[in-house]
Design goal:
single chain, alpha+beta, Methylamine Dehydrogenase, Chain H, 4 helices, about 30% helix
Length: about 475
């Protein structure tokens, strides 16, 4: 190559310089084309072909072979590089497509799973909405059929005899004695014991206390304290035909106390939870009934008519929540049970081998707290402060009275069945002359009144969760 250059003319040298410049330009163009995509590579290939044609026209000139060899080498290298680039680009495209397909498949799977879950959730929501609509419709139907309660005071009397403002009783009661801390803890129940003409109180302190009342001195004093239960006393009921009174407790038992000796004669155990209430059948076989937080009514009987021989005979089921109160309609031989499930059940007791619930009263709007039966009338107090009157011959609620917005925990009928004495959660006792607008409110307790009773018509005794007893005298 060096010897051929020494024999070149000036024109040939110029031409060689021009060809070198062209080749350098070609290389720069090729580098640019390598950086660009496949389209620029095609353009560079076309330009190189044109240059080759121009060089073929100068074949006779010396030095053209070396240029052809250089261009062929550059072409081959560029083609190899382009083929590599194309292959790498193709492989990258394939990888990208695979990734995209994977992403799409994952997205589709996720969307399908999410769609299935969303469908399930929507189905559940639709079912819940349907259930709510059905419940609301059933409640609306019930409310349409249910008679509404009368308004708050003075809605205590029938509509045809209603007076705008309640008037006072022809007499009133004054508190003549207050025994603070009559029990160490809250007083939960109070009862009048007929055979002893005394008052019995029960407390959270697990004791029962017997109180004497001196009507001449207008004073009440403690006679005896009874122990035996291992938990709070919940209820005390007098069973005068059996010459005993019964106490129920949170220790899941009942105890029968002899009125003469004031000793516990028998302990009745079956309930699995707190025993809240009791009553008895004063005629016939003289069964004892108990109800509690286990939603069961237990019937206790005796063959020899002795207190120590009472045993469990059977259990009645039906209420969905705890049994809060029991009463016995002796003239119909019905056992009546009230519950926190807002229902009252009437059980026919003529045949102890086939006891059935013959009526369920469901038109009460609140939990039942206390039941009292007297002369074809059942009185039921509820947690919403309403007392309902139910005629037993019709087994139907005839009217309702609302004394206040607080619950009624205890009540009693006295003064020849003409007056109703009520103890409420608001710490007030109320006396109402039945069938009139006359009433009186006894104020003094600071907590709920849990027990009320009359004594020889001229006195009223109230017990409260404030641990105190009050003696009220009519004036």
């Amino acid at each position: 190559m060096g010897s051929s250059q020494g024999n070149l003319t000036s024109e040939e040298i110029k031409e060689s310089h021009s060809t070198e410049e062209k080749n350098s330009k070609k290389n720069t163009k090729k580098e640019k084309n390598e950086d660009s995509g496949e389209e620029n590579n095609e353009q560079s290939d076309s330009e190189s072909e044109k240059n080759e044609e121009g060089e073929k026209s100068e074949e006779d000139k010396p030095g053209s072979k070396s240029d052809e060899e250089n261009s062929s080498q550059v072409k081959s290298s560029s083609n190899k590089e382009n083929s590599k680039k194309k292959f790498t680009d193709f492989s990258k495209d394939e990888e990208n497509e695979e990734k995209k397909s994977k992403r799409k498949s994952s997205k589709n799977s996720k969307s399908s799973s999410e769609s299935s879950e969303s469908k399930k959730e929507k189905e559940k929501e639709s079912e819940k909405e349907k259930e709510k609509e059905e419940k609301s419709e059933s409640e609306k139907e019930l409310k349409k059929n249910l008679p509404t309660y009368t308004d708050a005071l003075p809605g205590e009397i029938p509509e045809e005899r209603r007076v705008s403002n309640p008037t006072k009783l022809p007499f009133h009661y004054n508190c003549c004695q207050t025994i603070e801390n009559a029990h160490k803890k809250e007083i939960t129940t109070l009862a009048y014991i007929l055979r002893r003409n005394e008052i019995a109180t029960g407390s959270v302190d697990e004791t029962i206390k017997i109180w004497k009342i001196n009507t001449e001195k207008n004073k009440m004093s403690l006679n005896k304290e009874l122990k035996g239960h291992t938990d709070s006393i919940i209820c005390i009921k007098d069973f005068p035909k059996l010459n005993c009174f019964c106490s129920t407790s949170a220790d899941n038992s009942l105890k029968l106390w002899n009125c003469s000796s004031l000793k516990c004669v028998k302990t009745l155990e079956f309930h699995t939870k707190c025993v809240l209430t009791c009553c008895y059948n004063p005629i016939g076989s003289q069964e004892i009934f108990s109800g509690g937080e286990d939603c069961l009514i237990c019937i206790w009987t005796t063959t020899k008519k002795e207190l120590k021989n009472y045993e469990k005979r059977m259990v009645l089921k039906g209420h969905k929540k705890r049994i809060s109160s029991l009463a016995y309609a002796d003239d119909y031989e019905y056992l009546i049970s009230g519950s926190d499930d807002k229902t009252i059940r009437i059980w026919e007791m003529k045949d102890l081998d086939d006891i059935q619930c013959i009526k369920e009263i469901i038109d009460l709007l609140s939990e039942i707290d206390y039941l009292l039966y007297l002369d074809n009338r059942l009185l039921a107090s509820c947690e919403d402060g309403v007392i309902s009157f139910i005629k037993m011959n019709k087994k139907k609620r005839c009217r309702s009275i609302k004394f206040s917005n607080s619950a009624v925990y205890s009540f009693n009928i006295f003064h020849k069945h003409k007056y109703l004495l009520v103890g409420s959660k608001d710490g007030k006792a109320r006396i109402w002359k039945i069938g009139t607008n006359k009433r009186e409110v006894l104020k003094g307790h600071t907590k709920a009144i849990t027990g009320v009773t009359d004594f020889e018509e001229d006195f009223v005794i109230t017990g409260s969760l404030d641990c105190s007893l009050k003696l009220w005298k009519k004036e």
